[in-house]
Specification:
By secondary structure, the protein is mostly helical. Helix content is 86%, strand content 0%. The chain contains 2 helices and no strands. Helix 1 (5-29) packs antiparallel against helix 2 (33-58). The chain is elongated.
Amino acid sequence: MTLSAERTRAYLCGALTGAFAAVSITALRQHRRPAAAASALLSVVCGSFAVVYEERAQQ
């Protein structure tokens, strides 16, 4: 089974969302607030892209 390009991008962005969230949590525990904030922002952006691509894939 082959995934569409839109669905592949959605899954990739979803994986990046989780990765950036993990980096953010780790940075927060190490008291590195700027890195935690940047990673959290990237996580939100990637999550938004994941939703957009998933919506496109369903159309």
